[in-house]
Write a structure and sequence with these properties.
Elements: H1 11-15, H2 43-50, H3 57-73, E1 76-77, H4 78-82, H5 93-107, E2 110-119, E3 124-133, H6 136-155
Antiparallel strand pairs: 1-3, 2-3
Helix pairs in contact: 3-5
């Protein structure tokens, strides 16, 4: 029986009523919202591709809150991240830390940097996580677009 399982089938996702997009993007069907003629989409439309409003409204909301704050601040350290619930929103910190940030990191939207520190008064040392916007997502999209443009031009020759 185990040999017949498809490697991409997520059994937990099949039992739930929503589509789990842990490792994928949701291709939009809303032609009015995602106009093909638009030269650039705003960042909130792009977040809707990662966390579709229809499938995961809370993750969509928390991702937009987090990215809005990251855009304003430029970087978010672990201390500020741990106070996510105090940003004036309901309990979303665990959703943010366990689902949203890992996916944004896998997609290359954000990157983690770790700063070493040592508390001289207590002799403790550790690392502080700092989250910053990453440039790898842009590079990946450029590579995808260029690869597809080459495919199209070869197909029309």
């Amino acid at each position: 029986m185990a040999e017949n399982k498809h490697p991409f089938v997520d059994e937990a996702a099949r039992k739930s009523s929503t589509i789990v997009t842990k490792n994928s993007l949701a291709i939009p069907e809303d032609r009015e919202k995602y106009k093909l003629s638009d030269r650039a989409w705003n960042w909130e439309k792009i977040v809707d591709l990662f966390f579709p409003q229809e499938q995961s409204p809370r993750r969509n909301k928390y991702a937009k809150i987090f990215l809005r704050e990251l855009k304003q601040e430029g970087e978010i350290d672990s201390e500020k991240l741990n106070s996510f619930d105090e940003w004036g929103h309901e309990k979303g910190k665990s959703n943010l830390k366990n689902h949203i940030l890992p996916k944004l990191r896998r997609l290359g939207i954000i990157q983690y940097e770790y700063l070493e520190y040592r508390d001289r008064s207590e002799g403790k040392q550790g690392r502080q996580k700092v989250i910053k916007p990453a440039r790898s997502f842009t590079s990946m999209l450029d590579a995808i677009a260029n690869g597809w443009a080459a495919f199209e031009s070869a197909a029309y020759e």
